[in-house]
Write a structure and sequence with these properties.
single chain, about 70 residues, mainly beta, 7-stranded antiparallel sheet, about 70% strand
Amino acid sequence: MSGKVQCHSGHTYAQEPRAFVWEGERLVVDEVMARWRLPAGPTFRVRAAAGQVFDLHYAEAEDQWHIRPLGGGL
């Protein structure tokens, strides 16, 4: 699902997500659990402050974030 992500950007865009909107609620990223790069752009596995786990993928060509819930406690 497409979404809004606030991220830290230093020398490049989307270096590290800080918060995102899921189902109308702003969730703060408590921990970046993993990060990797796909051909289409960077992906982050994050834990929100309430414990939910999500994959956040930035599709560079589309200039769009994609958010996928994974549940909690992974």
